[in-house]
Design goal:
The chain is an alpha/beta fold and 311 residues long. The chain has helices spanning 2-31, 36-50, 56-67, 73-95, 97-100, 118-126, 143-150, 165-179, 189-198, 229-237, 274-291, and strands spanning 113-116, 131-135, 155-159, 182-184, 202-206, 215-219, 222-226, 240-249, 253-258.
Length: 311
């Protein structure tokens, strides 16, 4: 009897997740009948209205107050609303990604997408070698691997699938058709990335995600655990590391930036300093977030401080 009940509960949960996926993607598909700019602007407006009424809003405000103690409550609220709008835009932009990405390296006229660091893209393409590009959840970070593909770069991207398996399947199919080789984040993903680097190719990773077990570092002056994966790969393959980000511009436009390679911290014997490397990544991401705080996803519990909401 207990086994029977467990099976029923699992089936109901699967049905719930399936239903959520149908509603989400049904709505996003419905958006396709509207012009891209209008639909994206509407979702921005809607999420700014809905977001503050969710439980995540309190966590977002707490994160912002801890990160920016010098800012007023009004400034914090403004950033929070902007972050909700950014999340709404990110969801809507999935639908219109093929229409939004209009960058052509051979065209001189400016479009919706502008790219900074074109010589770096071309140099990596024309002189193949193992390299890592890292980014953060800023702007529409999904556009970065699309840009890499536009330049002919063979980059394997590590990504964390959504918890809903039906949503994860659709998102994976959508991404893989536009972003090249994808590696879902799981126990064996580091080996998949290592194989790509060993073959002289590039990989892309997000470095601002919450990590339960990792290196002790700081982010906005508060203690965090940082994933050591990037440092381990650099230590093993001695590969170059490039920061990259997406910045939202007015008028539903975007600037994609790839920066010069970082000088990795090493000791007197030339060995990579793992903790200093992790801190270097955090410092780079923090500088991006401070520049455009409303374009980062503040609703994540990056500092693992949910318990403070109970006080």
């Amino acid at each position: 009897m207990k086994l029977f009940i467990t099976r029923i509960v699992l089936k109901l949960d699967h049905f719930r997740q399936w239903l959520i996926a149908q509603v989400v993607f049904g709505f996003l598909t419905f958006l396709k009948i509207f012009p891209a700019d209008g639909a994206i602007n509407f979702i921005d407006w809607a999420t700014r209205k809905i977001g503050p009424h969710t439980s995540r809003h309190r966590l977002m405000l707490l994160n912002l107050r801890n990160a920016f103690p010098e800012k007023s409550q009004a400034e914090i609220e403004t950033i929070a609303l902007g972050s909700w709008g950014n999340m709404g835009r990110l969801a809507a932009e999935y639908v219109f990604l093929d229409r939004l990405f209009d960058f052509d390296p051979t065209r001189d006229e400016p479009g919706r997408i502008e790219v900074s660091g074109i010589p770096i893209f071309l140099e990596l393409r024309d002189n193949p070698r193992p390299f890592i590009v890292f980014t953060a959840h800023t702007g529409n970070f999904e556009l970065l691997p699309v840009a890499g593909a536009a330049f002919g770069l063979n980059v394997t991207v590590l990504f964390r699938p959504p918890n809903n398996p039906y949503v994860a399947e659709k998102v994976f199919d959508f991404r893989s058709a536009r972003m090249g080789n994808l590696v879902p984040s799981h126990a064996g993903s580091s080996f998949a990335l290592a194989r790509q680097l060993e073959a002289g190719q590039g990989v892309g990773v997000l470095v601002d995600q919450k990590f339960r077990k990792g290196l002790k570092t700081t982010f906005f002056g508060r203690d965090v655990k940082t994933n050591p994966l990037l440092g381990k790969l650099v230590r093993q393959f001695n590969c170059e590391v490039y920061p990259a980000r997406c910045i939202r511009l007015p008028g539903n436009r975007y600037r994609l930036e790839i920066e010069p390679k970082l000088d990795m911290p090493r000791d007197a014997n030339g060995n990579l300093n793992m903790v200093a490397t992790a801190q270097l990544l955090n410092d780079k991401v923090e500088s991006w977030v401070r520049e455009n705080p409303e374009q980062w996803l503040w609703y994540h519990d990056r500092w693992k401080i949910k318990h403070e909401l109970q006080k």
